[in-house]
Amino acid sequence: MLRPTARLLSESLDVPIRCSLLPGHGPAPWGLELKSYEAVVESLARRLFPDGDASGQLLAGYSLGGRLALGVALRVRGLRGVVAFGAHLGLTNEGERSERQRWDDKMAEQVKRDGVERFFSDWAELPMFASQRSLPPSVLAEQTAIRNAHSAKGIGWAFSTLGTGRMPNLLPALQASSLNVTLVAGSLDSKFCELYQPLVGSALRVIRLEGAGHNAFLEDPVGSAVALQAIWSQSINGA
Question: Where are the beta strands (DSSP E) in 105-203?
Fold first, then answer.
């Protein structure tokens, strides 16, 4: 559901905009031979920036896409900035990491057992998506169609390989880098507002998008586009 935001950005900014299908997603998913977050990020970085040069570009992603974007940003040079919407930076507690890995594996088995339609029907009922239930039926129907076009094998692989429990803690590397990092959380997304709160005032910029929930691209494409346009303009001006 990045297309509305991408369309708005293309209309307001005179720059090319590219969207990449995430590994494990779509009816013919790519990357299933890769066995770790690190291997996927390396492969994605080569796909997006074959020579490793991202000069003058801004990289953005939501949730898993945001987590992958942060990893890619640490592996290329010249990037103007990276923006992650509702994306975890990685767990620091090994007990929490092990617990999350078990949950990721449970989700992987569930989608492979039940199929994508039933799985995503249950997924939409998670508390973090409650703010989406008031969206227009046409928006929800389009999101459902996109989700149901995925394959159970690909989504299962994404959970077991790219789940939060299997990504490294990226915060130390991000803080040690010279990257311009912006983390965006919808004001209705209490989990990520709380997660990002300790970073307010740090080298990593934190933005709260008022009135949006976890998936700001879906719930407020205009607000998401305005935020990205402001970040782009600030990066040009060196702010």
Answer: 181-186
At a CB cut-off of 8 Å and minimum separation 6, what does 32 contact? 23, 24, 153, 154, 157
Q: How far is CA 188 from the centre of its chain?
A: 17
Which residue, among 62, 70, 60, 107, has the nearest Cα to 90 in the 3D structure?
70
Give the whole-number percent of the chain exceeding pLDDT 70. Answer: 98
Cα–Cα distance for residue pair 86/183, rounded to 1 Å: 7
Q: CA angle, corner 88, sides to 139 and 103, nearest 5?
A: 85
pLDDT digit string, tens, across residues 117-153? 999 999 999 999 999 999 999 999 999 999 999 999 9
pLDDT at 238: 59
For the domain that residue 194 is a member of, what is the CATH number? 3.40.50.1820
Q: Can you tell me whether residue 23 is helix, strand or coil?
A: coil
Q: How far apart are CA 227 and CA 174, in angstroms?
A: 21
pTM over 0.85: yes
Nearest to 174 by CA among 235, 103, 98, 89: 89
CB atoms within 10 A of CB 237: 7
Give the chain's domain count: 1
Which residues fall within 8 angstroms of residue 150, CB to CB, at 6 or more apart?
Answer: 24, 25, 26, 27, 29, 116
Range of the domain at 55: 3-237
Please give the structure tokens belonging to residue 228. Answer: 């990205």
Closest CA to 167 of 37, 6, 18: 37
Rg (C-alpha) for the chain, rounded Å, is: 17
